[in-house]
TrEMBL record:
The lineage of its organism: Bacteria, Pseudomonadati, Planctomycetota, Planctomycetia, Gemmatales. This is RNA polymerase sigma factor 70 region 4 type 2 domain-containing protein. It comes from the Bacteria. GO terms for biological process: DNA-templated transcription initiation. InterPro entries: RNA_pol_sigma-70-like, RNA_pol_sigma-70_dom, RNA_pol_sigma70_r2, RNA_pol_sigma70_r4_t2, RNA_pol_sigma_r2, RNA_pol_sigma_r3/r4-like, WH-like_DNA-bd_sf. Residues 2-52 form the RNA polymerase sigma-70 region domain. CDD domains: Sigma70_r4. SUPFAM superfamilies: Sigma2 domain of RNA polymerase sigma factors, Sigma3 and sigma4 domains of RNA polymerase sigma factors. Belongs to the sigma-70 factor family. ECF subfamily. GO terms for molecular function: DNA binding; sigma factor activity.
Amino acid sequence: MAYARRLDRDQAMDIVQEAFLRLWRAWEAGETILSPRAWLLRVARNLAEDTAKSAFHRNGTSPVDWLYGIAGRSPMPVQQLERAETLAQIRQLLADLPTDDRDILTLRYALDYDTNQIAELLGIQVTAVHMRLSRARKRLADRLAEQGVTSLP
């Protein structure tokens, strides 16, 4: 009967097992069942109909491979590690740069000051800030290239 309702051998077996489990639990609870065969058929029929109505059995599930196409918001662990290593190299190379270069790069990129704020703080012209930043970035880029760093995080 379960197979006739669902036309799926595995689902029919699940329904039959569940029906027998419920019969066993009913007997354990002390229920009196006068006709176990009729009781099992009624429970199996109800389970088959419930299974047919279930959204899980109607729609099924997507294979796990489908989830691989969903991009996460955070970078992959390998990318995080590469970024951390590159930033450590940059910090090391910054420490080796002349003080003027290190100070102007720190003000601009670590503290996020704009060129007007840097010019006011250092008491120089804005055009001088642009020139110093350009030269400091060039020296840092050359040292990074020597270390084999081709792209920044």
